[in-house]
Amino acid sequence: MTDHIELINTLKETRSLSDEGLKALMRGGGECDAALFSAADTVRRAIYGDKVYIRGLIEFTNYCKNNCYYCGIRRANQSLQRYRLSADEILECCAEGYSLGFRTFVLQGGEDPYYTDKVFCGIIERIRAAFPDCAITLSVGEKPKESYQAYFDAGANRYLLRHETATDAHYRRLHPESMSLENRKRCLYWLKEIGFEVGSGFMVGSPYQTPDDLLRDLRFLGELRPDMIGIGPFLTHPETPFAGFENGSFELTLRLISILRLMFPYALIPATTALGTIRPDGREMGLRAGANVVMPNLSPVRTRKLYELYENKICTGEESAQCRGCLERRVESAGYRIVTDIGSAKRETKR
Ligand code: SAM
Ligand code: FES
Question: What values do phi and psi take at 317, rounded to 5?
Answer without folding.
Answer: -110, -15
